[in-house]
Amino acid sequence: ALQQCLTDESYRVMIFCAGDIYGAQNVAFPHQSELKVNNQEIKANLRGLKNKPGSTRPVDITAALRLKLPNYINNVEFTYALTNKKFYLVANVCKITTVKELVSIISTRRRIPKESVVSELNKKAQDPDVVA
C-alpha cells in the first residue's frame, strides 16, 4: 500500500490521533506532543482551533517517509507529556480527492426530483404524530 504513494501523488500517509477507541472520534492530539518520523521532527499544527473540538486535521507524513528504499523500516515516534490520559495513534494511507473530482462525482449521481422532496415534506407535515 505504501508503494501507491510513489506512483500516485493523490495517496498520502496521514497520522490520526484520538483520546478514545470507541465510537466516532474527533482527531485530537495532546497539547504537549511531538511527532517524529525517521528522527525528523514533523512541523504541523497538532492543536486545531481553540475550544473547537474536531478542528484538528490529521498530519501528512508522506514527505518524511523513505519509500524508495526496499525493506526500509520507517520509524514513527509520538511523545506527549503533562497528561495521564491515553491517546491512540494510527497511520493510514489515504486517497486525496480534489474539489474538481468531488464536483464531478456529485454531478453524475442520480438526483432526487424537487416534487418528490416537496411531497415528502408535505406528507410529514400532515402526520399528527409530528409536532412542529
From TrEMBL:
InterPro entries: PINIT (IPR023321), PINIT_sf (IPR038654). Pathway: Protein modification; protein sumoylation. It comes from the Eukaryota. Residues 1-97 form the PINIT domain. One of its GO terms (biological process) is protein sumoylation. Gene3D superfamilies: PINIT domain (2.60.120.780). Belongs to the PIAS family. This is PINIT domain-containing protein.
